[in-house]
Design goal:
- By secondary structure, the protein is mostly helical.
- It has one domain.
- Helices cover 75% and strands 3% of the residues.
- It has 22 helices and two strands.
- It has a two-stranded antiparallel sheet with strand order 1-2.
- About 2% of the residues have low confidence.
């Protein structure tokens, strides 16, 4: 029996104290240690890909809590493997970036140990089908995130960290209530056993459960109106933590809605309620897309601008999730339509993660070199920081949905799926039209960001401009890794598409 996924859990867990001790000797060595752990985990997940492509799912099961009928079940399919891969790539980039970015900060051994601990919860969410273990990893993400934002953030760091903690923990309460209700109704803690049991024992309780779970996950996803924690937390966090928060952690909320709310509970809520529920998701997605885009258009703080763009893109994802199949009984055409939309949505989680991670690290690089965060005080930095300018422009164009960068193909697939869904649900006609308008706003704030920061005339005088240089080499390596990923996913998305398409939501259960 292979222990690939168990090793993915155990290696970083056991390594946390060793990372801390290594950091006592050399913070640089601790950063490399964290990056190597993520590389090993990436290789372990890669060993499961042939099984996923041939069988659709790779599973490991271990004895755990027999009194609750709970096994320590680890699994990956095409969706969870894709997001886990991007998560690990971002952890590698964040660790390498930290070597230069964090070198003058205090208590770095604790920082790298917390970063290693964060990777356990972050990746663990995507690798388990046991609801108890899922919730453990869901909460585990919050603890190191709180301390990293609070200890190594910018101005009101602990205030922003506390806001992050309160909002996301409040959302977790709804998640726990939903999980508890599922166990009480079905007697199972495994997602797929729960799905089968709900088909006969669901009833009205399934409607309450899907609302509770989706509300809790939406807080982590930061869609309007439960988005208030995100601008402060993302803007005050160190750039490495911002990259992980916006690149992966909020995406975990979208993954959880797809996996639990829609994949497990939704088939049991009934067609009429299900249609209304999806329509409501589409409306919240549309509001989030416009709200985030409009604020980003007028925001002058470089990190808050990017943070609001994250709200906008979670609006795209929520809209894409609303295109989930309402009824399998409508025939193969509906299944084909739904597959296009959901495939595009999952690919957008992947492409947005790597693109937004790159954009936040680029913004951190600019702040690190210029010691300012107001884009009105920047300008002309392309001449002084050409490497950073190229990386940031690639990220901004991807976020804008411009080809050949990562977000273009995922947004294109979402809209193709939306137009197909309109043929049997006319409700989506107006939301789809408005979402197309929102993409124009994304292009507008992305171009504004690039022009204000890197083009035009420098705002500082000549004496100040001479002090600005491009970023050190480790930061360049980190940005280069993500630039390659942004271009590769945009030009050749086939790898991720093949993985995602192995998952057939709505065909079983």
């Amino acid at each position: 029996m292979s222990f690939a996924l168990l090793s993915v859990f155990l290696i970083p867990t056991i390594s946390v104290p060793f990372v801390y001790l290594t950091g006592k000797k050399s913070p640089k060595a601790a950063a490399i240690f964290v990056a190597l752990i993520a590389i090993v985990n990436l290789a372990l997940i890669a060993t499961t890909i042939p099984t996923i492509l041939s069988s659709g799912r790779y599973v490991e099961t271990y004895e755990w809590i027999s009194v609750l009928n709970a096994s320590f079940t680890l699994f990956v399919d095409g969706i969870s493997a894709s997001i886990a891969i991007i998560s690990l790539v971002l952890i590698i980039a964040a660790a390498i970036f930290s070597i230069n970015y964090m070198e003058h900060k205090k208590n770095l051994p604790a920082y790298y140990a917390l970063l290693c601990m964060l990777s356990v919860g972050l990746v663990g969410v995507f690798l388990t089908s046991n609801l108890l273990l899922f919730y453990f990893c869901w909460e585990l993400m919050l603890v190191p995130a709180y301390f990293i934002v609070g200890n190594w953030g910018y101005r009101d760091a602990y205030k922003a960290a506390f806001k992050l903690f309160i909002f996301t923990h409040a959302g977790a309460v709804f998640v726990l209530l939903g999980i508890g209700a599922l166990y009480m109704v079905t007697g199972y803690t495994d997602m797929f056993q729960v799905q089968a049991a709900l088909a006969t024992h669901g009833g009205d309780i399934a409607k309450w459960v899907i609302v509770a779970l989706t509300a809790g996950f939406a807080v982590k996803m930061a869609v309007v109106p439960v988005h208030m924690w995100l601008p402060d937390a993302h803007s005050e966090a160190p750039a490495t933590m911002s990259a992980l928060l916006s690149g992966v952690i909020i995406s975990a909320g979208a993954y959880a809605i797809l996996r639990l709310s829609l994949g497990i509970v939704f088939p049991s809520v009934g067609a009429a309620f299900g249609a209304d529920f999806l329509h409501g998701m589409a409306i919240f997605g549309l509001i989030s897309a416009f709200f985030g885009s409009l604020i980003a258009l007028v925001e002058n703080d470089i990190k808050r601008l990017i943070a609001y763009s994250s709200i906008a893109h979670m609006g795209y994802v929520m809209f894409g999730l609303s295109l989930f199949p309402v009824s399998v009984a409508a025939g193969s055409a509906v299944i084909l339509i739904s597959a296009t939309a959901i495939t595009g949505t999952v690919l957008h989680i992947v492409s947005h993660g790597v693109s937004k991670g790159l954009l936040f690290l680029s913004a951190g690089a600019v702040m690190h070199q210029t010691e300012t965060r107001d884009i009105r005080e920047m300008g002309g930095l392309a001449g002084k920081m050409p490497f950073t300018a190229v990386a940031a422009t690639a990220a901004a164009l991807s976020i804008a949905g411009a080809p050949p960068f990562a977000c273009f193909i995922s947004e294109f697939l979402i809209f193709v799926g939306a137009f197909q869904v309109i043929s049997y649900d006319s409700f989506y006609l107006i939301p789809t039209a408005f979402m197309l308008i929102a993409t124009v706003l994304s292009l507008a704030y992305s171009l504004r960001f690039t022009s204000k920061v890197f083009l035009g005339q420098p705002k500082q005088n000549d004496g100040e401009q001479k002090k600005i240089f491009d970023i050190p080499n480790y930061m360049k390596v980190s940005l280069a890794i993500l630039v390659v990923m942004v271009i590769l996913v945009g030009v050749y998305p086939t790898f991720f598409l093949q993985l995602i398409e192995t998952v057939k939501f709505g065909l079983a259960g």
